[in-house]
Amino acid sequence: MRKHNFSPGPATLPAVVFQQAADALVDYNHSGLSIAEISHRAPEFMQIIEEASALVRELYQLPDYFEVLWLPGGASSQLAVAPMNLLGLNDSMAIVDTGFWALRSIDAARELAQVHVLASASETHYDRIPKDWTLPADAKYLHVVSNETIEGIQYHQYPEVDIPLVADMTSDFLSKPLDVDRFGIIFASAQKNFGIAGITCVLVNTKVLPSNSDRKVPTIFDYRTHIQNQSLYHTVPTFPVYVALLMLRWIKAEGGLDEMQKRSIAKSELLYTEIDRNPLFEGIAVKEDRSVLNACFRAISPEIEIQFLAHCSKNNVVGIKGFPTVGGFRASMYNGMNIESVELLVDLMKNFKPEL
Ligand SMILES: *Cc1c(COP(=O)(O)O)cnc(C)c1O
Question: Domain 15-254 carries which CATH code?
Fold first, then answer.
């Protein structure tokens, strides 16, 4: 029996996508070969990666000057690779400290350039997005963590600035339509909203790539290398790209990004309504910044928390324990999560009777 998996990532995907991926792993399109043994340069695979890129382009309506890259590894690498590509040795970038993934990017960027931390939500334990700050004149770009996966806070409106945004969208990529023109770089590892672990999709606005920089970017980390080679400079993790293609086809067939957004809002409203109604639980983030992908909440006592986790696991609901720094619960509801699973979680909250 399939469990209802609220894990923050690797996350659940639609059952049909897992089935298609499993079939292709045994025999890809009746070719007599597994998808995993086909060369990344074979025409069969080139078709896969081209279709995947074309679907990202179509879903986000990317202008020509955007390139779609598929790079091995997770979004964490891009926290270093993006500043490497965009900043000269004496340049600076700006960032708002919104939580765990902002802190990771601050650390990564500081190894390469100057970092202006414009504001921090640390004093309120990262329960909100700081909005009151001023941009220094010398910042080349503003790094935003579109959705702070661990603390469950999300930009519902991106900051209005006249420099490009570089966005870590790992936990809300392909979850809503976007005005991409404001972005220099957008990146997301696949295992949350659109696939399995192993690859990161990077959207590069070629207008922001500096034409001459005093930094010598190693060839393997240079976005231009991968643009020139259509992401096939080296062996891209082929199976994860194939799974991403299956998810992209699924997203398009289900109605595209408008529909993904509608569903995310519906799923999260259902859950937050119960969190706010039920006297045994309380939300962690301030309402206006609550993430529609990761809902963080706690029970009114640690004993009740233990009992509720047991109640969930008895009913096949898994993956909702919060990250240690935040505690409580975190229900992650990415593109692959059914509303039926959220309805079940809400029912479990409603009929939960702690033993006191
Ligand atoms: C999960 C996550 C990452 C890290 O991705 P890896 O694939 O583990 O490198 C980075 N940023 C955000 C916002 C995330 O949610």
Answer: 3.40.640.10
